[in-house]
Amino acid sequence: MAEYSRELTPLQLDALKEVGNIGSGNAAVALSAMVDKKVLLSVPRATLIPLVKVSDLVGGAETPVAGVYLHITGDASGSMLLLLEEKSAYELAKIMASGKKGEELSTVEMSALQETGSILAGSYLNALSQLTNLLLRPSVPGFALDMAGAIIDFILVEISQSEDYVLVIETEFDISAHKIRGHLVLFPDLGSLDLILSRLGVSAV
Fold first, then answer.
1. Exposure string (b/e) for 142-172, b if CB count within 10 Å is 16 or more?
2. CB-CB contact of 125 with 20 (8 Å)
3. What band does 88 get if pLDDT is binned at 50, 70 and 90?
4. 3-state secondary structure of 7
5. How big is the CA angle at 7 (ends 68 and 161), to the nearest 5 degrees?
6. Using CB atoms within 10 A of its CB, is residue 11 exposed (0-12), middle (13-18) or buried (19+)?
7. Whole-structure pTM over 0.90, yes or no?
8. Taking the mean position of all CA atoms in its chain, how far away is CA 23?
């Protein structure tokens, strides 16, 4: 990885957060219909972090997590990952599937978690596509329960040339008095980050 610092201007971060807000709003409507409960989603912040620091979002590479991941093709390519700490993932899965408390996730609960991640990522990509006029086509999502480092390494194996930095959209779920935090991470293929930012009306620094 390149040893240099890269920062976005406040204008660039605001543009990315706006994309997150629009995407979260659309996802909240879809998720509310899915579970017949009021689902609120918020985006506290959007950030750009070094690729090597992604696992630090959840406490380190050996932290048990759940990940819903998909690949992006089209005018800008890459991968997207919804990263949830294990406890948060279990809590969210039980709520979304109306499941009972237990040590293990049922097939239905894992499917509900995968669908939640798919809706959230898809809504974000749709918002980004509308604002940039770029074709962004998501793949069928995958799901994994593993250590953070293992999931991230798996995604990177699938990417031939990735950027040294990734976009992180913090996402907070508020469902039936439960507040759950996750991280939606966009791993852009080489060149895609600058293209996305330029189409948002702001060029990369």
1. bbbbebbeebbebbeeebeebbebbbbbbbe
2. no
3. very high
4. coil
5. 50
6. exposed
7. no
8. 11
The verdict on residue 176 lying in a domain is yes
Contact 55, 47 (CB under 8 A): no
In a domain, 19, yes or no: yes
In tens, the pLDDT along 164-204 reads: 888 899 999 999 888 999 999 999 988 888 888 888 766 54
**Structure-token match 């293929």, residue found:** 189
* Cα distance between residue 26 and residue 13, in whole Å: 20
Burial of 117 (0-12, 13-18, 19+ CB in 10 A): buried
Look at residue 85 and tell me if it is in a domain: yes
DSSP letters for 71-92: EEEESS-EEEEEEEEHHHHHHH
Dist CA 23 CA 20 (whole Å):
5
DSSP H helices in the chain: 10-35, 86-97, 107-132, 148-158, 192-199
> For residues 89 and 80, what is the distance between their CA atoms, to the nearest angstrom?
17
Beta bridge partners of 47: 168
Helix, coil or strand: residue 194:
helix
Record the tokens describing residue 1, joined without a space: 């990885």
> Domain count of the chain?
1
CA–CA distance, 90 with 67 (Å, rounded to integer) = 12
CATH of the domain at 144: 3.40.1550.10
Q: pLDDT digit string (tens) for 90-118?
A: 989 888 887 666 667 889 989 999 999 99
Tell me whether strands 165-175 and 136-138 are parallel, antiparallel or unpaired: unpaired
